[in-house]
Hints:
The chain is an alpha+beta fold. The protein is built from one helix and four strands, in the order αββββ. The protein has one helix at residues 7-16; strands spanning 24-32, 36-44, 52-56, 59-63. The chain has a four-stranded mixed sheet. Strand 3 and strand 4 form a beta hairpin. It is globular and about 35 Å long.
Amino acid sequence: MTLTLSDSALDKLRTLFDSSKYRGLRVAVEAAGCTGMKYMLEWATQKGLEDEEVVYKEIPILVD
């Protein structure tokens, strides 16, 4: 898996991430409207059965 975040995005995620509330940031692609697909980013409280979990510069990322 390849994931790249800018320094400013990473700084913002660090300020928002609360490990007492969240397991990590879930990244997913879902079907949507006439364009076909959309990216989803949300704080996840638990890991899904098929999620791949990686830590990117201190931020846990769950990939659907």
